[in-house]
Amino acid sequence: MARPKTLYEKIWEAHVVREQPGEPSLIYIDRHLIHEGTSPQAFAGLKAAGRKVRRPDLTFAVMDHSVPTKDRNLPMTDSIAAAQFEALDHNCHETGVTLFNMFSHNQGIVHVIGPELGITQPGQTIVCGDSHTSTHGAFGTLAFGIGTSEVEHVLATQTLSQFKSPTMAVRVDGRPPAGVTAKDVVLAIIGHIGIGGGTGHVIEYAGSAIRALSMEGRMTVCNMTIEGGARAGMVAPDDTTFAYLEGRPFVPRGKDYQAAVDGWKTLATDQGAQYDREVVLNGPEIAPQVTWGTNPGMVTDVTGRVPDPHSFSDPVDQKAAEAALRYMGLEPGTPIENIAVDRVFIGSCTNSRLEDLRLAARVVEGKHVSKSLKQALVVPGSMVVKSQAEQEGLDKIFRAAGFEWRDAGCSMCIGMNADVLPSGERSASTSNRNFEGRQGKGGRTHLVSPMMAAAAAIEGHFVDIRKWSGVQ
Amino acid sequence: MQSFTKHKGLVAPLDRVNVDTDQMVPKQFLKALTRAGFGRTLFYDWRYLPGEKPNPDFVLNYPRYQGASILVARANFGCGSSREHAPWALGDYGFRALLAPSYADIFYNNCFKNGILPVTLSDAEIDEIFRRVETDVGYALNVDLETQTVSDECGLRLSFTVDPFRRECLLNGWDDIGLTLRHEGQIAAYERERAPKAVLYGEVDASVLAVPKGN
Question: Does A17 touch chain B (CB under 8 A)?
Answer without folding.
Answer: yes
